[in-house]
Amino acid sequence: MKTVVWICIGILVVLGCSTPKSTVTPTEKNITNNDTIRIANEELEYEVIIFEPGFNAWLESTARPRNYYDLAFLENRNQIWVTNYNQRLLDPRRYDPLLYEMQINYQNNINYGYEVNYMLYNYLLYFQLKYKQRLGGFEPRL
């Protein structure tokens, strides 16, 4: 594979272990099992996997609907937030290593499409709101 984007963002919670309850198939071959969201496109050779208890429910109930933000806005925020997230990951003495577990491989020069940018943006927004983090120079808000 030329380009593989693995976004394995996970907070594995021992207390939240359960079997998958449902499968939803929105756009672009998405699979949702409980609180695991997988977005894959073999043609573009990328895969996004998000493991986060509560994220799926938050996404469906609280997040802005698809197409609320334009692609340029999502790409801009994702670039800033991913850069800051990855910097915190590399400094475990300063930032909680249980929050920043895996690197996000998001490259500015690759067109991931709307769906990946939408899901990544919403995950990073959820992450900031839930864990009271600030990944950019601005307050995370809906």
- Strand count: 5
Structural classification = alpha+beta
Described by its quaternary structure, the protein is single chain
Distance between the termini: 36 Å
Helix content class? 25-40%
Give the rounded overall mean pLDDT.
Answer: 77
- What is the helix tally? 3
Unreliable sequence segments: 1-33
* Outline: globular
What would you say this structure looks like, in words?
The chain has 142 residues and is an alpha+beta fold. It is built from three helices and five strands; from the N terminus they run E-E-E-E-E-H-H-H. Helix 2 (71-89) packs across helix 3 (114-131). It is globular and about 40 Å long. It starts with 5 loop residues before the first strand and ends in an 11-residue tail after the last helix.
Q: What is this entry, summarized?
A:
It contains three helices and five strands, in the order E-E-E-E-E-H-H-H. With 142 residues, it is of the alpha+beta class. The termini are far apart.
Secondary structure elements and their pairing?
Blueprint: E1 6-10, E2 23-24, E3 30-33, E4 36-41, E5 46-51, H1 55-61, H2 71-89, H3 114-131
Parallel strand pairs: 1-5
Antiparallel strand pairs: 2-3, 3-4, 4-5
Question: What are its keywords?
Answer:
142 residues; alpha+beta; 5 strands; 16% strand; globular
